[in-house]
């Protein structure tokens, strides 16, 4: 499990501040008559690195998709960076440009080059001049270690490279919060490591991160809090050491025994 | 036994194998023939049958083409020349009809001394299309493409130059209204950009252009001899309707496709009913509506140009089909593309313009071009509302003259070849475009 994390983690910039980044209170969501998220209460502070895990269908992806309103919640309150998510489109676009999102299937734009993928939102949403946007994009592409691919198309890159581009694309918007929706589960084992390394570097710089992932090695090494969800509810949350060594609920124990058992 | 044994022993590869050449005995013309034409009894029989069919067709067509007559004044003379040269009973193609009447096929009854105007309009059409079709050309040429519809209108119909200028001014006014009203919100800006130009066109543009024309007189650079719509015919008519229909139906089709996928009930309902209604009735019904029924609804005394009416109907008809083709392209895009665009904070129109439509349109290219080709060929249906299309209108006119009564194949072949040239060009261009936009490297 933790064999993919070989390096020493530099914790000097990983500081959790008192400032609240995301506040979710009494939030409920239904798909038709199916109650996917039930009474979610959660506070994320600036600088936190939270891993959300749970069996499939437990609502963990839906939860982080609610945070940038890819999904609409029906009751309760979500406040991101001081902006409440309501049906007001202006607020939604504001939140979305402050919150980066990385998807399971990368969702790069196949008709644009890597560089164009990274500069599109800065140019059109942030109104950054093209030249400056390209410089920023190259900076982040260097950071994810693929500057030489800048003029290729996504279809020419491996899965791991595509996911790193997707991370760079989000970072180009200089987000305050990053959401990861199972970023490594569509990747070959050989490529998981390169993506996790990129995510660890991001954490080392103090980025506020919410990751839905089954990479428990990553959770132990980087997270300051692990949240376990089942049937649309938060079942247990704790700091990772305690969470893995000493799970409290039966459901958590069962889940951990299944994913860590082999 | 020995190789089974070899498989069961632990094995480690020391060196990796380089890729090798494929066997070469499969190549060559003979093996191609054997594989493709004579691979079995059924294929041998089909090949022979095919060859016989081709031979039978060619032995009818080739002699007929070989015995072409290019110089004759009428069909009787044509037949006489064929009989003299190749003996009584021989048949031959009489291309003299094309030689004598080609201007009519191309220009209809457009005044002969003004032929330069449609010709110039066609030449400029290619200039205007070039920057639209080929992205390597400088973008500044687009300004000419934008001005081209007004230039072409003036060249084709003539009259005062101020009419197209005043109509074009409406678009500039709309753009200015949008820019000025933008700070009062998007809805106000859009409403202003739509309503103010319409008011301009309805109440001011006509009078203003008439006054300006009256003021400056009917002198050469500002005034061209007007040509009425009923003089249009042949390929001038087909290309005028076809090109306008193609240029207008694509944006309308895109809007309808987006409307049909909209979350807003009213917009969706309007788009769906429009598309289903237009696709549900034959084009000829729409053309009859344009030519006959509209007159009942319009205030008496209004003259609403018949070609304009036909262009509107052809555009609406093609737009409904294009909307469905593009909807297919939109549906083929994975949901992740919409989500990624949303997650980056792009608003609806930017997401559509930068992310969704470029990909959806690329997928839809074959369908869109098929619709365009269909539209261009359907322009021949305007014969049913009394316009002289090249295929039936003009050909009938030619065949009704005493000189060429009884001529049959030659005009149709001629018209067919010109249509084919245009449509084949469109088809090749679409294949070029697909290749150029291919970025998925599968």
Automatic annotation (TrEMBL), chain A:
SMART domains assigned to the protein according to its UniProt record, in alphabetical order: AAA
Assigned keywords, A-Z: ATP-binding, Nucleotide-binding, Transport
Domain ABC transporter: 22-256
CDD domains in UniProt: ABC_HisP_GlnQ
Keyword hit for ATP-binding: yes
One Pfam family linked to the record: ABC_tran
A GO term for molecular function: ABC-type amino acid transporter activity
PROSITE patterns per the UniProt record, alphabetical: ABC_TRANSPORTER_1, ABC_TRANSPORTER_2
Family annotation (InterPro entries): AAA+_ATPase (IPR003593), ABC_ATPase_HisP-typ (IPR030679), ABC_transporter-like_ATP-bd (IPR003439), ABC_transporter-like_CS (IPR017871), MetN_ABC_transporter-like (IPR050086), P-loop_NTPase (IPR027417)
Recorded family membership: Belongs to the ABC transporter superfamily.
Protein name, per record: L-glutamine ABC transporter ATP-binding protein /L-glutamate ABC transporter ATP-binding protein /L-aspartate ABC transporter ATP-binding protein /L-asparagine ABC transporter ATP-binding protein
Naturally occurring in which organism (per UniProt): Cereibacter azotoformans
Automatic annotation (TrEMBL), chain B:
Signal peptide residue numbers: none
Main location per the UniProt record: membrane
Any single biological process term in GO: amino acid transport
InterPro entries: AA_ABC_transptr_permease_3TM, ArtM/GltK/GlnP/TcyL/YhdX-like, MetI-like, MetI-like_sf
GO cellular component, one term: ATP-binding cassette (ABC) transporter complex
Similarity field: Belongs to the binding-protein-dependent transport system permease family. HisMQ subfamily.
Record protein name field: L-glutamine ABC transporter membrane protein /L-glutamate ABC transporter membrane protein /L-aspartate ABC transporter membrane protein /L-asparagine ABC transporter membrane protein
